[in-house]
Amino acid sequence: MTPPETVVRRPEVPRAPTTVEETGLSFDLLQQLVLKTLHVRGEQSAAALSQRLGVVHSVLEPVLHHMKQSYLSEVWGGGTLGGPSYVYRVTQAGRERALMALSQSQYIGTAPVPFPQYAQYMHDYARLAPLVVTRTTVEQAFAHLVLSRRVLDQLGPAVNGGHSLFVYGPPGNGKTVISQAIAHLLTGDVAIPHALDFDGHLVQVFDPAVHEPTGVGASASLDLGQVDDARWIRCRRPLVTVGGELTLSSLELAYSPNSRLYQAPIQLLANGGVLVIDDFGRQRCSVVDLLNRWITPLESRVDYLTLQSGQKMPVPFVVLVVFATNIEPADLVDEAFLRRIHYKVYAENPTTADFKRIFERCCRDRGLGYDDAAVDRLVSDYFRRRGIALRGCYPRDLLEHALAIADYKGEPRTLSYERLVDACASYFLDDQTGGARA
User: Fold this and answer.
1) Per-residue pLDDT tens for 149-163?
2) What is the pLDDT of residues 346-396, one digit of tens each?
3) Does 255 lie in the same domain as 141?
4) CATH number for the domain including 39?
């Protein structure tokens, strides 16, 4: 019986506020952004300022009026098409106020989102967008990999759980690729704010190196107020991967004393998506310290980030964390932490049949003819006789060696048993007593 189609509701990107009060920002903060923009960018029309700050004209109108009344700016031109066409420039008094604002924060650009609005959005996202994957969707997401039925049937429920998982096993069996492919199961979009305002402290969140905008824009004019809030960017659900370079500081707000701005840590960048901790256990900080840092957010789904003032930001932790390691989990972490990692997936060595399937795919990807007899002989006469366990990475690596040998000798780029043996000779360590090793 085919299960009924699951209807997944997702929170909409917040609608554009039409008043200063609806933005959730202080009047003074908006005025500082306008002054800094005019000081740095030069004279701007009200419409251009609205676009740069990501708010509709009705939000900026009282701010611009107050600035003009306070002699911080003046109308320099325009006006034939009404208020949005007025061109503003700062006065000397406005320039001094802008320099004062820049000394407090170098942030210029899209107005930030108040932290309470972001927290509410992420709470709604976690509540309204449960992830439900089936065996069919898992098979489709991992179709580019050769994985056993056991592994696929462990990955599906782990993703449905939406909590965290260990992907572990011998090196060379694609733990990193498996972990990253989980992101293919996370359908839909998530709204990412350009920046957050936490009691006057600004945190930059949107990172073009991590977040991929979907290109879905607003369908109406900003001045109608019936469009998405431009302070947010509609993006694909993020995938963030960190490896041995991970330090404890990567998990905290990074403050720049020069710009007076905070940069979001990796788990905040990954909110709404997947965070892969690759090569877990080989980071530049102790495993114990790293685990202690993860325990609270994994358990409570809330992460506490600390500002320079010592104030805490309780950030919703809507992240699927994947720990990938070739170290036995029991040798890395204690039982208390393992309990918090609800799912464990063992990336086992491929069977002979799967090994040959991987070899065939690698040949096809390189435009080579696949020789099943040569690979079968390689497994029986070379790997088994030398006690070499099959690994998922060997077909790719050995083909690269074999092609390099063919190019060096000026021979045709074809697959043969003899050429594969030559590739093995330069790939594996020659250890006759303990068996060959990669």
Assistant:
1) 999 999 988 888 877
2) 999 999 999 999 999 999 999 999 999 999 999 999 999 999 999 999 999
3) yes
4) 1.10.10.10
| One-letter amino acid of 223 | D
In the block, residue with structure tokens 């930059």: 204
User: Is 34 in the same domain as 159?
Assistant: no
DSSP of 376-427: HHIIIIIIHHHTPPP-TTHHHHHHHHHHHHHHHHT------HHHHHHHHHHH
Given a contact cutoff of 8 angstroms between Cβ atoms, the answer to whether 230 and 218 are in contact is yes
Find, among 302, 377, 291, the residue nearest to 339 by Cα. 291
Nearest residue to 135 (alpha-carbon basis) of 185, 181, 180: 185
Question: 50 with 183, same domain?
Answer: no
What's the CA gap between 293 and 311, in Å, rounded?
A: 17
Q: Which of 152, 216, 149, 214 is nearest to 178 (CA)?
A: 152
Residue 365 and residue 381 in one domain: yes
Of 260, 81, 107, 102, give the one whose Cα is nearest residue 194.
Answer: 107
> How far is 350 from 151, CA to CA, in rounded Å?
11
Does 397 fall in a domain?
A: yes
Do residues 72 and 91 make contact, with C-beta atoms less than 8 angstroms apart? Answer: yes
Structure tokens at 63: 């701010």
Neighbouring C-beta atoms of residue 105, cutoff 10 Å: 17
Q: What is the pLDDT of residues 194-231, one digit of tens each?
A: 999 998 999 999 999 999 998 755 443 344 445 889 99
Q: Which residues pair with 189 in a beta bridge?
A: 236
Only one residue has tokens 């109406």, namely 220
User: Is 212 exposed, middle or buried (CB count within 10 Å of its CB: 0-12, 13-18, 19+)?
Assistant: middle
Q: Residue 173: phi, psi to the nearest 5?
A: -105, 20
The pLDDT value recorded for residue 283 is 82
Dihedrals phi, psi of 141, to nearest 5 degrees = -65, -30
Domain hosting 86: range is 20-111
